Amino acid sequence: SALNSGIFSSSRMLYTLALNKELSPKFLKLSKHHVPTLPVLAMSGGILIGIVLNALLPLFWRGSSSVFVLVYSASTLPGMVPWFVILISQIKFKRDNPNLLEGHPFKMPWAPYTNYFAIAMLVLTLVYMVINPETRIPLLIGLAFLLVMSVVFFITHHKSAKQ
After folding, report:
1. Which long-range contacts (CB under 8 A, 24 or more apart) does 152-161 make?
2. For the chain, what is the HEC assignment?
3. How far from chain centre, in Å, is Cα 14?
4. Which residue, 10, 51, 76, 134, is the most exposed by fewest CB within 10 angstroms?
5. For the chain, how big is the Rg over CA atoms in Å?
6. In the prediction, which pLDDT does 89 show?
7. pLDDT above 90: residue 163
8. What gap in Å lies between CA 144 and CA 91, rounded to an integer?
9. Spatial distance between the Cα atoms of 54 and 50, rounded to a whole number of angstroms
């Protein structure tokens, strides 16, 4: 179920990137059932590579007992970035717009302390990942991925802003 959901959501993200001209238009082709074919195949291929690596990598690298731990750990920091942004944005919004929140029916109890608590828990998770030898290198890989993607984003959007 989780795998199916992952393929569905990831393939739709690839399709949307192609719609926004951030990926090849080949990713826009739909099957007769209106399914984005190439994005589904690309995600399925990535999963297949993961399965093969999970079986073969431990034979060549003793420290890699599970590719799942490596990949999941590497994706933790990039996955946390949106949560940091959301939590910090909520704190800033509440501070800058108290009049908009008067009488609002959906208030978070104990805010902004709950935001600070969530940020502290995210930071604590990262600290433990640095301490744990199994997740330290993958965390650095995730940091490197995040930095490379940020540089690519700023380079490509700087070029498109000039046009």
Report:
1. 156/22
2. CHHHHHHHHHHHHHHHHHHCCCCCHHHHCECCCCCEHHHHHHHHHHHHHHHHHHHHHHHHCCCCCCHHHHHHHHHHHHHHHHHHHHHHHHHHHHHHCHHHHCCCCCCCCCCCHHHHHHHHHHHHHHHHHHHCHHHHHHHHHHHHHHHHHHHHHHHHHHHHHHC
3. 13
4. 51
5. 20
6. 95
7. no
8. 28
9. 6
